[in-house]
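Marked as duplicate of an earlier ticket. Keeping the data here for the record.
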Amino acid sequence: MNQPRIQKNILVVEDDEQSARFIQVLLQGSYTIHNASWAEAAWDILEHESIDLVLMDISLPGEENGLALTRRIRASLRFGGLPVIVVTAHAFPRDRENSLAAGCNEYISKPFERTQLLAAVQRQLS
């Protein structure tokens, strides 16, 4: 008897509605998507849902940007091992370095190819 496939849960932390919708369209059907547009909303989802991967924008409204939130995730005993992929319009080499130094597993700059995002997600979830 075949077991039903359990979908992985991905948290998309993105304040730009179009970008969040685009990522959701790319991933829906294969993954369960949770959306947050700022850091505290993302943290709330992390505490109440079983998240397997975070797609993180760097620029977020409020006091905490995506890199600060990533550092908070890394410092947490509960979430410290959670894979985080930065998906951002910040595309300079220093942005990549800062993202990886904050604890992100991978860095993707916008605009990105669909296959690039899917491959990164699959790498981090395998």
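See parent ticket for discussion. The longest strand covers residues 8-13.
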